[in-house]
Amino acid sequence: MKPDARRNEVLGRLRGGLQDVPITRTNFSWGIPFPGDEEHVIYVWIDALLNYATALELADDASELHRHWPAAYHVIGKEILWFHAVIWPAVLMALELPQPACVYAHSFWISEGQKMSKSLGNFIDLPTIERYVDVYGLDAWRWYMVNNGPLGATDADFQATGFHETYTTDLVNTVGNCASRTTAMLGKYFDGIVPADTGFDFPGWDLAGAAGIAVAKWRTAMADFALDDACEAGIGLLRTVDAFINATEPFKVAKDEARRDELASILARCVEAVRVASVLLWPVIPGRMETLWPALGCDLDPSRGDLEAVAAWGETLKGATTRKIALFPRVDPATTPAADVAS
Question: Which member of 11, 94, 147, 312 has the greatest number of CB atoms within 10 A?
């Protein structure tokens, strides 16, 4: 049961003792009639929970859908925590079916510091979501949901200005800029061809090691359903690439032909680190990363196998043809949903 606050909530209620839960009701008529006694209808929180089992045809021994159960993470809203953390496991145990490895209860949204309500008209409804997607793109929406959404124990505040700032800081200035400057320098100094890493030593800098650490952090975060930490593993590696570029100054190195090997090592390691980071970021911003890969001269599909293996450091891009790419365009604040709110 995660997060810990939700687990403690359930444990506290359990310590107060449990009561039997009738699986049928007679005080209303809507619902599924109980076989053999149609005056009773099945209690909705028995009926609804069993949909997880029936949808995957768990009663059919020959069904191939069984491979989807049990879930590694059963993700629900916190308001239905009790039913999924206590009643549902009890039903599964009675049926001798495996339980989910973890029930994860996310929190709620508020909007611009206030609870969403009809009177305030501040719902983040489908037309509002479509407006954000039209302006920023679907990957930007995914990024904000994962990094600023209500996945933790406390409710999250959806803010239009915060969305724009997150998009600009994370996606434009970090993900997009790092990919753009790396591919631009490859185009300018090596005609777009990824050079071999000459093994030049840069004291204090180990991009291969940083990539390995990022992959390990990503794996731990994903196993813990800490999706924001998984994002940080990927984008953090790109920040390291940016810092490496600033420290090694390839634009100055390129002016000295005698330092050609040094330049090759700088850019070979940068583009490989960008590739590794893109694999780690792909689960959250798949559209833009799948656009990036052809620009890096690689053909990747992490869904075909072990993502960690795809993200392993190497010289897989040596000799590949790259092109400069702009992944996330800057958005004029005057055209954004934040401007709509202000007006």
Answer: 147
